[in-house]
Specification:
CATH class of the largest domain: Alpha Beta
Helix content: 40-55%
Order of helices and strands: EHEHHEHHEEEHHEHEHEHEHEEHHH
Radius of gyration: 22 Å
CATH architecture of the largest domain: 3-Layer(aba) Sandwich
Number of helices: 14
Structural class: alpha/beta
Number of domains: 3
Oligomer: single chain
Distance between the termini: 27 Å
CATH topology of the largest domain: Isopropylmalate Dehydrogenase
CATH superfamily of the largest domain: Isopropylmalate Dehydrogenase
Bound molecules: 1,4-dihydronicotinamide adenine dinucleotide, magnesium ion
Largest sheet: 10 strands, mixed
Shape: globular
């Protein structure tokens, strides 16, 4: 029997291409696992009215970790039109499988390392090495939204908050409400995860990225929590930055930052910004981590125009596999894979189109695997 059981959800489009590449590298370094493939994505939405069938959630609960490729998602109306005819008008509503998985399995940490591997022509600078902890389960992603705004809620808000008055008179379908809900528990655990990571990895600072001067209650909760938890980690400096200023600082001095922690939406934004500083979507992996479960994925989507062409850069997916190995405690194999990626980038011989080369997805995977075996 293999040491680990890994759920593999390639998903849609290039998700399949990059998953093949990552699995090849894992195999080449001798990772001892049984891979169990699961269903997720557009095809299952169209034919079953559910992009994340229950059997897939069950699989995720029964395996040691999950590798996830990418999925296609589309706006509600378009999704409804693409359903198989016999499923239409039966009340099926499209939802994002990845957001649902994060909530179902309580994968509360979204971990986004943004590290520049020297020699990558797409690097903004070669000395960037920061790690973003994004809260993954609530905030503006709570999904508690209203359109049109029900009269009952409209009346209640008018009663409860003086600042609502100017919205009160508007027709129900001239306004929309999305609730930003942040809890003490979720704020604590994401901030604690960031500090614990900083401590374990000899990082000097944790920067909390919020906007407490304007979004006083929710961002205020995050910042207060950060100050309290920081006291338990006297060796690590707490920095505070506003999300807007942070966007600027990340472009000005990205090399100064170490560990960043933020709520769901702000974390999402700075993660994409930071990813672009180290080569963009093709280089940017992420982990969705809970207490004892985790899912690892590249941050790019399904890039339909390149689907099945064996053309896109598999580095992000390979680095996601490397993060999975770290999570499982297979740090030696993780280091080998990272070495393989770093060497492949540095030697500049095998490169996909995004780096100005002509190599295929498989070519890159083979090269990474070859270096990784030596690493
Ligand atoms: P995308 O990330 O799929 O692709 C945008 C562009 O980035 C591509 O056209 C390509 O030029 C480049 N790109 C992406 N990955 C690359 C790689 N590995 N190597 C080289 N170049 C790469 O984003 P897009 O086009 O906005 O969305 C396509 C679909 O993916 C949509 O249905 C969207 O909803 C979905 N999506 C899914 C995500 C997920 O599965 N977590 C995340 C983002 C988008
Ligand atoms: Mg994003």
């Amino acid at each position: 029997m293999a040491k680990y059981r890994i759920a593999v959800l390639p998903g849609d489009g290039i998700g399949k291409d990059v998953m093949d590449a990552a699995l090849m590298v894992l195999k080449e370094v001798g990772f001892d696992a049984e891979y169990v493939f699961g269903d997720v994505g557009w095809e299952f939405w169209r034919h079953e009215g559910n992009p994340l069938p229950d059997r897939t959630l069950k699989l995720l609960r029964e395996t040691d970790a999950c590798l996830f490729g990418a999925i296609t998602s589309k706006p509600k109306e378009e999704a409804a039109r693409e359903l198989d005819p016999e499923l239409r008008d039966k009340g099926y509503v499209y939802f994002s499988p990845i957001v649902r998985i994060r909530q179902e399995l309580d994968l509360y940490v979204n971990l986004r390392p943004c590290k520049a591997y020297p020699g990558n022509p797409l690097n903004y600078r070669d000395d960037i090495d920061l790690v973003i902890f994004r809260e993954n389960t609530e905030d503006l992603y709570s999904g508690v939204e209203f359109f049109p705004v029900p009269d009952e809620l409209d009346g209640l808000l008018d009663k409860l908050h003086p600042k609502y008055r100017r919205f009160h008179g508007l027709p129900a379908d001239h306004k929309a409400i999305s609730l930003r809900i942040n809890t003490l528990e979720a704020s604590e655990r994401i901030i604690r995860a960031a500090f614990e990571f900083a401590q374990a990895n000899n990082r000097k600072s944790v920067t909390i990225v919020e906007k407490p001067n304007v979004v006083r209650e929710t961002s205020g909760l995050m910042v207060r929590t950060a100050r309290r938890i920081a006291r338990e980690f006297p060796d690590i400096q707490l920095w505070e930055a506003n999300i807007d200023a942070m966007a600027m600082w990340l472009v000005k001095n990205p090399q100064d930052y170490d560990v960043l922690v933020s709520s769901n939406l702000f974390g999402d934004i700075i993660s994409d910004l930071a990813a672009q500083l180290v080569g963009g979507l093709g280089f940017s992996p992420s982990g969705n981590i809970g207490r004892d479960r985790a899912l690892f994925e590249p941050t790019h989507g399904s890039a339909p125009k390149y689907a099945g062409q064996n053309k896109v850069n598999p580095t992000a997916m390979i680095l996601a596999a490397k993060m999975m190995l770290d999570f499982l405690g297979e740090t030696k194999l993780a280091r080998q894979i990272e070495y393989g990626v770093a060497q492949t980038i540095k030697e500049a011989e095998v490169r996909t189109y995004d780096m100005g080369g002509t190599a295929s997805t498989t070519d890159v995977a083979c090269r990474v695997a070859r270096w990784a075996r030596e690493g």
